[in-house]
Automatic annotation (TrEMBL):
Belongs to the NOP5/NOP56 family. Residues 494-503 have a biased composition (Basic residues). It is found in: Nucleus, Nucleolus. Involved in the early to middle stages of 60S ribosomal subunit biogenesis. Required for the biogenesis of box C/D snoRNAs such U3, U8 and U14 snoRNAs. Part of the small subunit (SSU) processome, first precursor of the small eukaryotic ribosomal subunit. During the assembly of the SSU processome in the nucleolus, many ribosome biogenesis factors, an RNA chaperone and ribosomal proteins associate with the nascent pre-rRNA and work in concert to generate RNA folding, modifications, rearrangements and cleavage as well as targeted degradation of pre-ribosomal RNA by the RNA exosome. Residues 457-503 are annotated as: Disordered. SUPFAM superfamilies: Nop domain. This is Nucleolar protein 56. Keywords: Nucleus, Ribosome biogenesis. InterPro entries: Nop56/Nop58, NOP58/56_N, Nop_C, Nop_dom, Nop_dom_sf, NOSIC. Residues 294-412 form the Nop domain. It comes from Callorhinchus milii. The keyword Cytoplasm does not apply.
Amino acid sequence: MVLFHLLFEHASGYALLVVKEVEEISMLLPQVEECVQVIGKFNNIVKLVAFSPFKSAQSALDNMNAVSEGIVHEDLKLLLDTSLPASSKKRKVTLGVADTKLGAALQEDLGIQCQTGGVVVELLRGVRLHFHTLVQGLTAVSAAKAQLGLGHSYSRAKVKFNVNRVDNMIIQSISLLDQLDKDINTFSMRVREWYGYHFPELIKLVGDNHTYCRLARHIGNRKLLSEASLEGLEEIVMDSGKAQAILDASRSSMGMDISPIDLINIESFSRRVVSLAEYRQTLQEYLRSRMNQVAPNLAALIGEVVGARLISHAGSLTNLAKYPASTVQILGAEKALFRALKSKGNTPKYGLIYHSTFIGRAAPKNKGRISRYLANKCTIASRIDCFSELPSSVFGDKLKDQVEERMAFYETGEPPRKNIDVMKEAMSEVRAVLGVVVGGSGWGGGVRPDGEQVKMEENGVLVPEATPSKKRKKHSVTTVSPEPLTPMEAVSEKKKKKKVKSQ
């Protein structure tokens, strides 16, 4: 005989149900699917045995976290111990559960035979549909409220939302910054072509797009320029000689005349391009501030813009921290990598990190070395930023100094400092900045306040130091040190020992 029970986890509590005629039900799965929809037929199949409600919202959250991680909570263990009958030779008890990990944990901890899939899924679907009618005192409205409250609590604890460490804003900002660069460049070229019909000499005198749009808006009709306009031109171009050249060119320009309505449209479009360029500067300052909050070490090492591009390309700071240094090195050069692998050619040496100042300053023969070393330091910086609770740019500054020393080593041969020395110095500065005090003499090792012995490894991480095993105390024996022998006596002593061994 087999007793088949069902375990159902609800936001309001645990429910234990018994299934009638389990052998016939397992053989007639289509009929079970039809009976699930009707409460009268479903009551003939399933009967509620016990219901253990949660005492509070915090208790419900704790149980939900335990179930999601495949851990048997004490409340669930108490319910099964009191309500689930024990198995015997004549009567075997099987428990149907929805989660495979929870079933394995129940079988391991309590020795209960569990079953998942098949008819269990259909039966639990029916229990979920008619749960508020199976439990007395529970309505559909109260069950929905319990599920909503528990869902909010679970999501809030799962996400651990921190508005100051959101990298989504960095991803959107760097994407918008790239789009603005393209749009401003396109619009500026349109202004140059449009206004160039009226004042073609201005294109040769002014190369910057932003300055050109400001001048086009300020000048308007070139025939109206006079000595009174010279001061305004100097404020825009920041050069008195260039301002005078613009004034002289306007008087002898070969451009065509322009109608007032065309000039109004050109000035309106130039004003919008100038406002976009000003907004781009504001957005770049915002990106710099967000990078200093979210990833200060990565920003200090490789720059705010390149660091934001790495985070955006990886998808998040957490994904970037998971990447090895070899992946970070060629991040952004996937097409070249796959093309090289397909043609069996040389793989690329760098991707997005090529835009950093280090690779640009390195010698051609050292670019690959510097890119590999820089990718290693970027990986360390991103992991520190991702998993540190209090952000600080101390490690980023030290890692940047290490890259500078490595570049000097390749150029002059001066050996750089050891990594352990740099990490010790960085940790001491972090302690000074954050006010973290670690006991013990020196940073090489010490004792934490909880009494655990710690020591410093090469990567700058504190690890527990192995405590020496206790040995039994031996009685102290006083020994008399023999007088030193002369060389002749020492030789004779050796000869005596050899004779004794030969005998």
